[in-house]
Amino acid sequence: MATIREENQKLLRQPLKVECGMSVKLDDINEISIIGGGYDNYAGDVSEQVATPIYMDLSNGGFVNDGFAVPLEEEHPGIISRIAPLTLVVYMDNPDEVPPIVTIIGTEDGVLKTWRFTRQVCQIPGYTRKIITHIVIGYAWQFDNSNLISCDVQLRGVETTCDNPSLQMSEIEIKGYEPNDITDVISQLGENYPIWYTSGYLGDMSEIRRFYLDGQISWIDKVITIRGVDATKFLDKEFAGTYLGNTSAIMTGGLNQLFDTYNSMIASAGVDAEYTNELLNEAYFNNRADAVYLPKKSIRELIAQASNLFKLDETATDSGFNMQFNYVDAGRPKLTISKRIADAVETIDNIGELEITSEPQIKEIRINAPLTFVNASAAIKTDTIQGTVFEELSEPYYSFTASAGTITRLSPTTYKLKSTTQRSITVSGRKIALYDPTDDGSNTPFIYQRRDEYRELLANGRTIELNDFYGFEGIWDTSETVTEQLWAICNQMAAVSPITYKFKWRGNPHLQPRDHINVMINGSAVKMTIDTMTLEHENGGLVSQITARKGWI
Amino acid sequence: MAWIEPKTDRGDSGTRTTATDMNRIAGNINFLRGTTIKADWTDADIVDSASWSAIINVTNLMASEIETEHCTASTDFANLNRIEQIAYAYKNYNPLVPRDNLYPSETLLPQ
């Protein structure tokens, strides 16, 4: 059996199999009955569009000995006919109601076919074997190499840049042969109907990628054009914002709650998120900063932030973790806490022309976050200080400066606090002294000292501003250290390579954005992380273009 | 059912397996092992999972007994050749051939 990786090594690759389609459900089917011509009268699930199966069918000259035919299971998907006309009755909730349009998709002697009826009793004529894979009250189109003209897929996720990355939508455009005049039909259709796509070789097909109709279908010169975007379309919904504290007796650590919060956040937008946390290490989380503030903004923006917040740690052992977003179904967010398996990395060679670009190095990362102060001994929190003692006169922010990819300096801005006792304090430099007048009047200061490591700033570089970023409680604690997490985040950002690549190659539809790859350049393997990937299918061929960033992010 | 000379020369993945082929494969296994695997396939049938599993499993039992390479459940031409080769080898396997390579009609002279 052919596999994508094996065929990609050959000078002449076998044509890829592409299957895709769209289903427009106008109403629910209550029941489907086989009243004639059924092979075993088993009416399997035909509600979802699927790729066409190949069985060890002895009709029509027998099955081809290419390894793709499989035996028939006792309970199999779809409806199979004898070598005879197949007659089905499609019932709606009201059994007397006549369905306005019934579309039946399947194969006839192995060839993809579509049948349409405007009645309950649907008779598919011909002394041939029919395998029905999808029935809908409504319309459906399905394409394979026999009727597909072209299929272009653009897979995107969260950009790999550190500079306020965004979560981009993936897109698909299908052009196929439709001989019937569907002008009236498409003028009445809405949006968001499900579209699906898969490609590869039988036995090595890509995961089903799912999209949703976006914009109107066109039909010109018997060619139907269908365009769709992925499920991230629905993630523009705003999240209300929340403050996660380590208060749960069951869940340990703010990051644990963050993980679960993201899952419920995505689900609230009506998008099924897949998530796994198989390497969740409670002891590890116990040591982490245990308060996280998620600001009020769209779910799409929050996912984009988190994707670059929790970066891959290549050295992570089983006691470590990588909390990262991957994308399945061409964009349905998948949140995982897991260790990356290096053996699964694809090695790509024989690439086309290579473009290399470089962004300016990061010299400074400014995090504009809510400022919180905690004095562990006195347990006084920010709101108490701010509400009763001080009034902020300017926006404070944390600033980390980077040199040669490492964080070397912590330098808060100069800001002013005015006490309610009408005392002004200007805070800058190495110390902050805060006075609490609710004490016994002695005005004992709480003194916080920061690191004082300073190196020359890079002469040329860019400043990244992260607004409404996560706030971490305990940043200014009496142990005089910045929380490990915030340093780690900034170290990770500063360490991300500014080098990006763009190239064309033969393509592998198993890959998706954020996958790690090794690309052979001048005989050496260069580690890269996929940013975007296009798949252009025509006449069984495939050309793919990849943009990627250096390093495994 | 009588033994039918197996087909072991499928040349490429463009060949096809018909009802006649399935009846020969299953029939030969039944002949050799006394099993009752379905061997009356017609052009209207689809090979079911239970029958195919039975063919593979019994074929591999025979392969084990004669200590030869097993087959798989694949429907590619090479594996179909292998299934029929095992049946042929099993039928012609004679464990009673003496170690000194005498023909069956020959006997050792008393020493």
Summarize the structure in words.
The complex is a heterodimer of chains A (553) and B (111). By secondary structure, chain A is mainly beta. In chain A, 11% of the residues lie in helices and 39% in strands. Chain A contains 7 helices and 36 strands. In chain A, the strands form 7 sheets. Chain A has an 18-stranded mixed β-sheet that branches. A 4-stranded mixed β-sheet of chain A has the order 27-26-24-32, with helices on one face. A 3-stranded antiparallel β-sheet of chain A has the order 2-5-8, with no helix packed on it. In chain A, a hairpin with a 2-residue loop joins strand 12 and strand 13. Chain A is globular and about 75 Å long. Mean pLDDT of chain A is 72; it is low at 246-254, 278-292, 316-322, 369-398, 400-459 and 468-485. By secondary structure, chain B is mainly alpha-helical. In chain B, 42% of the residues lie in helices and 2% in strands. Chain B is built from 3 helices and 1 strand, in the order E-H-H-H. Chain B starts with 15 loop residues before the first strand and ends in a 20-residue tail after the last helix.
How do you describe this structure in short?
With 553 residues, chain A is mainly beta. In chain A, the strands form seven sheets. Chain A has an 18-stranded mixed β-sheet that branches. In chain A, strands 27-26-24-32 form a four-stranded mixed β-sheet, with helices on one face. Chain A has a three-stranded antiparallel β-sheet with strand order 2-5-8, with no helix packed on it.
Question: pLDDT below 50 for ≥5 consecutive residues: which ranges of chain B?
Answer: none
Distance between the termini of chain B: 46 Å
Q: Give the helix/strand class of chain B.
A: mainly alpha
Mean pLDDT of chain B: 88
The proportion of residues forming helix of chain B, as a percent range, comes to 40-55%
Approximately how much beta-strand content do the residues of chain B carry? under 5%
Oligomeric nature of the chains: heterodimer
Low-confidence residue ranges of chain A: 246-254, 278-292, 316-322, 369-398, 400-459, 468-485
| Helical amount of chain A | 10-25%
The biggest beta sheet of chain B is recorded as: none
The number of helical elements of chain B comes to: 3
Task: Please tell me the overall pLDDT of chain A.
Answer: 72
Instruction: Give the biggest sheet of chain A.
Output: 18 strands, mixed
Strand residue percentage of chain A? 35-45%
Q: How many β-strand stretches of chain B?
A: 1
